[in-house]
Amino acid sequence: MKIDHDIVIAGGGVAGATAAALLAQAGQRVALIDRRRPEDPDPTADFDPRVVAIAPGSAAVLRAAGAWECLPAERLGPYDRMQVHADGGEIEFRASEHGLAHLGWIAEVPWLQACCWQALAGMESVELIAPAGVKDFSQREDHVRVERDNGKTLRARLLVAADGAHSRLRQMAGIETEIWHYNQRALVTHVTTERPNAGIAWQRFTEHGPLALLPLADGRSSVVWSQPERRVAELKSLDEAAFLADLNDCQDSPFGMATAATRRYAFPLIRRQAKSLAQGRFALLGDAARNVHPLAGQGLNLGLMDAAALAEALADWTGNTDPTRALRHYERWRISGGSVVAGGIHAINEFTRAGPGRSLAGLGFSVAGKLWPLREAFVEHACGLDRDSPGLARSAR
Ligand SMILES: Cc1cc2nc3c(=O)[nH]c(=O)nc-3n(C[C@H](O)[C@H](O)[C@H](O)COP(=O)(O)OP(=O)(O)OC[C@H]3O[C@@H](n4cnc5c(N)ncnc54)[C@H](O)[C@@H]3O)c2cc1C
User: Fold this and answer.
1) How far is CA 111 from the centre of its chain?
2) Fewer Cβ atoms within 10 Å of its own Cβ: the N or the C terminal residue of the chain?
3) For the chain, which ranges sit under pLDDT 70?
4) Domain 184-269's class?
5) Which of 301, 305, 304, 284 is nearest to 389 (CA)?
């Protein structure tokens, strides 16, 4: 029987496209299928509301995938300081104290995705199939049969689902998911402040929820403010002056008052964790595997670690052999890595919802700030440089 590809990846978001590039570079014949072919971003357009903090380990993974160098410097907001405040207590991290040039970069999701696809377009062993959706799949002893929306079928040795938080492929596989509804939404907008944000990722746990001001490359800050759904709806309906007054009541960042804001967007916040990440010749990665509260800016970073970990786990696999063992290794690795991060983020969000929790968190930040080994361990983990991170990520050191 003719096998079309070693690996089919369903979902060409940043996580799936990065996995496709790394696996192709390791010698696999890869097909990447997505419902939408990403458009070339307009270099003259304003910053997209969907921005993410990319850690140094993740940047190294994107570099290895051939996507990092294509991101224009004028659209990447590097930060070398991170400040977190809660009810009088605070902690600050400085890249230079941890032997790093930067703690991360604020980048736009559409640019990241377009750069991944541009890198893939130049790879001979990659077939990009878009726009096209995966409708169904079934596993046979030595291959997976993948059925497209248009009725065409593909045969591959392995199928990877990177089709996002609402993953249909995860549902088709019957993989159960734990779900927590936060009843919160993330309000997102870009603000101009009295002084430019020259590279500080600033965060405060406010009485309404965590508020972050993240540096954009042009000196503005991207606001990500997670709050109860009703309050987000109210804030969205305010005129700009009233919104800015509310925001300024809750923020005392080093950049001064916010004086202008772009359109406001709201993203629903739900935590999901798939109970297993591998099943026979099928694996999950990125948001399809889990998605987390954005307060620590880790969602896509986890997805990029998945991509690098999958490539590392499959390094010795050839299409003719059974991938089950390698996938089990991948699953154990990424379930434990992802759960620690997701569980920690979840606990902080829940704990800081009430006043006493925020006061205790503030005290904890101040104490932790003075404990060097704890600070170092936190930075290593948050930057994707700890011992549990894939080798590609650790190469950023
Ligand atoms: C407000 C907010 C702030 C955030 N901030 C950060 C941050 O600072 N740092 C960070 O790391 N993360 C952050 N995140 C999380 C981050 O945005 C996501 O984790 C990441 O974008 C998910 O990428 P993905 O490739 O896994 O999935 P997606 O981007 O959802 O891609 C899935 C792809 O699959 C395709 N698809 C779906 N179904 C099918 C099908 N049946 N067949 C074929 N293709 C299909 C879709 O078209 C899509 O292209 C934030 C999220 C939010 C909401």
Assistant:
1) 14
2) N
3) none
4) alpha beta
5) 305
Tokens of 106: 């604020």
**Cα–Cα distance measured from residue 31 to residue 125, given in angstroms and rounded to the nearest whole number:** 8
Location of structure tokens 């995860």: 170
Residue matched to tokens 């590609």: 392
Give, rounded to a whole angstrom, the gap between the first and last alpha carbons of the chain: 46
Which pLDDT does position 171 carry in this prediction?
98
Domain 5-77+107-178+270-394, second-level architecture: 3-Layer(bba) Sandwich (3.50)
Pick from 253, 262, 275: nearest CA to 331:
275
Taking the mean position of all CA atoms in its chain, how far away is CA 186?
A: 15
**Residue 358: which of 161, 88, 67 has the closest Cα?**
88
Please report the pLDDT score of residue 373 as a whole number: 86
- Name the DSSP letter for residue 165: T
Q: Which mutation among 51, 52, 166 tests ligand 1's pocket best, with the greatest number of atoms within 8 A of CB?
A: 52
Q: According to the model, what pLDDT value does residue 110 have?
A: 98
Residue 296: count of CB within 10 angstroms of its CB: 20
Contact 44, 291 (CB under 8 A): no
Q: Is 144:137 a contact under the CB 8 Å cutoff?
A: yes
Hey, whose CA ends up nearest to atom 31 of ligand 1? 13
Ligand 1 pocket, CB under 6 A: 10-16, 33-36, 52-53, 109, 133-134, 162-164, 168, 186, 188, 224, 267, 286-287, 291, 294, 297-301, 303
Side chain identity, residue 41? P
> What whole-number distance in Å separates Cα of residue 219 and Cα of residue 228?
29
CATH 3.50.50.60 residue ranges in the chain?
Answer: 5-77+107-178+270-394
Helical (H) or strand (E) element with 227 = strand 221-228
Q: Residues of CATH 3.30.9.10 domain(s) within the chain? A: 184-269
What pLDDT, on a 0 to 100 scale, did the predictor assign at position 315? 97
Can you give the pLDDT at residue 330?
A: 98
Which residues share a beta bridge with 278?
283
Nearest C-alpha neighbor of 115 from the set 62, 58, 50: 62
Burial class (CB in 10 A: 0-12, 13-18, 19+), 99: exposed
